[in-house]
C-alpha cells in the first residue's frame, strides 16, 4: 500500500476515534441526566433523556463499524503482482534452480512444524503492527486537546496573526468549546449553575423567549357537539432578554510572550474558563436572589417551603451558600443522625429532604461572608440563560503594552417563572439543638 494512502487511512481512523470518544462522553452524560430525572420523579424528562442516550449509542455503533472497516483495510495483506514474462526460457527454471527448488520442496514436506513456526511468526508480527497502530491512535486522541491549546498559544504569541486550528471572527479568535469545557480547567468545588437552569442558544442581541406556565387545572367536561370552551388566559408567557457583553483585559506582556517556556495556551484557557464560570454564576445567582423572599427559623419552615409553598410539579433543588450548608449540616434528628443525607448522585454529595444540594460562595447572592441564604425551587423553570456562545480572545490597543489580550463573553440571565422558587434566608439563632431535633421528627 502506498505510504500516502496509508497515512490518509490513519488520519481518517484518528478522526473517527475522536468522534467516538466525544459520543461516549455525550452518552454517559445523557444516561446520568436520565437517572437524575428518574430519581426526582420526572418520568417524561427521564424518557426523553433515555431516548437521546439510545440515539447517541446508535451513532457510536455506526462510527465503530466504520472504524472496523478501515481497520480491516489496513490489516489486509497486500500481495505483490507477479511480473508478466513472455520469454519461455525465463519462465522455465534452470537446472541449478530446479535442483534447489526440489530441495526446498523436500525440506518443506519433511518438516511441517518449521512451516507452522514460520506462519506463527508472521501472525505475531501482524499483531504487533496492529497493536502499534492502536497505540498510535490512543496517543493522538489523548493529545487532541493539547493540539487545541497549542493553537491558542500560537494565536497569542503571534498577536492574532496565527489562527491555525481556531475559528476566527474578524480579528477575534473563538476558543474551542472542548477546551473551555475541560473538567480539569474548572475546580471541582465550583458549581456551574448554567447546567441546572434553562440554557438556550440565541442568535440575536435582543428577543423574546416563550415560556409555558404550569397549568393549575384540567379540561372541563363538555357535552356532545358543544362548543369548545376557551382558556381564560394564554399559558404562554414571553420572557424578554437583552444580551450583555462581559469582557476584561488580560495583562500579557511582550516579555512574557518571548520568555515563557510554559504552555501559555493552557494557562490562558484555564483563566478564561474560570472567569467565564464565575461571571455566569454571579449573573444567575443575582436573578435567584430576586425571587419571593422567605425567612426560615426552623427546619419545619424549610420543609414547608418544599412540601407546601412550591407547586409539586416543579423539580426542586437547593442552591445554598456555604454558611447555609454548614448550619443545616450540623443539625441532627431525634436519633442523633445528621439531617443532610449522603448521596453520591448529588453534586455536593448530600441531599436535603431528598432534593439535590448545590453549594456556592456566601457572597454570590449579594450578601456578606457568613450569609445563610439559598434558592429553593426549580432552577430550570425559574431562570432563563440566553447564551450567545461567543467566548473569545481579541487583541486590542493599549498605550502601555502596545497590544493586550481581552477576553469576551456575551449572555443574559432573566427570571422565567417567578413561581418556580423562593429565596430563603436561614435564621436558627433562636433555635436550640433540642428544638431542631424535635422539628426534624
Automatic annotation (TrEMBL):
Where do the segments described as Disordered lie?
71-142
Q: Where is the composition biased (Acidic residues)?
A: 76-90
What residues does the Phage capsid-like C-terminal domain cover?
A: 174-420
From the Swiss-Prot or TrEMBL record, state where the protein is found. Virion
Compositional bias ranges of the Basic and acidic residues kind: 91-106, 119-132
Q: Which InterPro entries match?
A: Phage_capsid, Phage_capsid-like_C
Full protein name: Phage major capsid protein
SUPFAM superfamilies attached to this UniProt entry: Major capsid protein gp5
Question: NCBIfam families annotated for this entry?
Answer: major_cap_HK97
Amino acid at each position: 500500500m502506498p505510504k500516502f494512502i496509508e497515512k490518509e487511512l490513519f488520519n481518517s481512523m484518528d478522526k473517527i476515534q475522536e468522534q467516538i470518544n466525544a459520543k461516549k462522553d455525550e452518552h454517559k452524560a445523557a444516561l446520568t441526566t436520565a437517572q437524575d430525572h428518574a430519581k426526582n420523579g420526572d418520568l417524561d424528562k427521564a424518557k426523553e433523556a433515555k431516548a437521546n442516550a439510545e440515539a447517541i449509542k446508535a451513532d457510536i455503533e455506526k462510527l465503530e463499524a466504520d472504524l472496523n472497516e478501515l481497520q480491516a483495510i489496513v490489516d489486509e495483506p497486500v500481495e505483490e503482482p507477479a511480473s508478466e514474462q513472455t520469454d519461455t526460457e525465463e519462465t522455465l527454471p534452470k537446472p541449478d534452480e530446479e535442483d534447489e527448488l526440489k530441495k526446498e520442496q523436500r525440506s518443506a514436506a519433511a518438516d511441517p512444524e518449521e512451516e507452522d513456526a514460520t506462519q506463527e511468526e508472521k501472525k505475531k508480527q501482524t499483531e504487533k503492527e496492529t497493536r502499534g497502530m492502536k497505540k498510535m491512535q490512543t496517543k493522538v486522541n489523548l493529545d487532541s486537546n493539547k493540539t487545541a491549546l497549542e493553537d491558542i498559544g500560537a494565536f497569542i504569541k503571534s498577536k492574532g496573526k496565527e489562527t491555525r486550528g481556531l475559528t476566527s471572527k474578524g480579528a477575534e479568535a473563538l476558543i474551542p468549546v472542548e477546551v473551555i469545557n475541560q473538567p480539569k480547567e474548572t475546580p471541582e468545588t465550583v458549581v456551574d449553575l448554567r447546567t441546572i437552569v434553562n440554557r438556550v442558544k440565541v442568535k440575536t442581541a435582543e428577543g423574546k423567549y416563550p415560556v409555558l406556565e404550569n397549568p393549575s387545572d384540567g379540561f372541563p367536561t363538555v357535552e356532545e357537539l358543544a362548543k369548545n370552551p376557551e382558556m381564560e388566559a394564554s399559558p404562554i408567557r414571553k420572557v424578554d432578554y437583552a444580551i450583555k457583553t462581559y469582557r476584561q483585559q488580560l495583562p500579557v506582556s511582550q516579555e512574557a510572550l518571548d520568555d515563557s517556556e510554559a504552555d501559555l495556551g493552557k494557562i490562558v484557557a484555564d483563566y478564561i474558563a474560570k472567569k467565564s464560570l464565575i461571571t455566569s454564576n454571579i449573573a444567575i445567582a443575582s436573578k435567584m436572589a430576586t425571587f419571593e423572599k422567605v425567612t426560615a427559623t426552623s427546619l419545619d419552615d424549610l420543609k414547608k417551603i418544599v412540601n407546601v409553598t412550591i407547586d409539586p410539579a416543579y423539580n426542586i433543588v437547593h442552591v445554598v451558600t456555604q454558611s447555609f450548608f454548614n448550619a443545616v449540616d450540623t443539625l441532627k434528628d431525634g436519633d442523633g443522625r445528621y439531617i443532610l443525607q449522603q448521596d453520591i448522585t448529588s453534586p455536593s454529595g448530600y441531599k436535603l429532604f431528598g432534593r439535590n444540594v448545590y453549594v456556592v460562595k456566601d457572597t454570590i447572592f449579594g450578601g456578606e461572608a457568613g450569609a445563610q441564604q439559598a434558592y429553593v425551587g426549580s432552577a430550570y423553570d425559574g431562570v432563563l440563560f440566553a447564551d450567545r456562545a461567543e467566548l473569545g480572545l481579541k487583541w486590542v490597543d493599549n498605550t502601555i503594552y502596545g497590544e493586550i489580550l481581552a477576553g469576551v463573553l456575551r449572555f443574559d440571565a432573566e427570571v422565567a417563572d417567578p413561581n418556580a422558587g423562593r429565596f430563603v434566608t436561614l435564621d436558627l439563632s433562636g433555635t436550640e439543638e433540642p428544638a431542631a431535633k424535635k422539628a426534624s421528627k
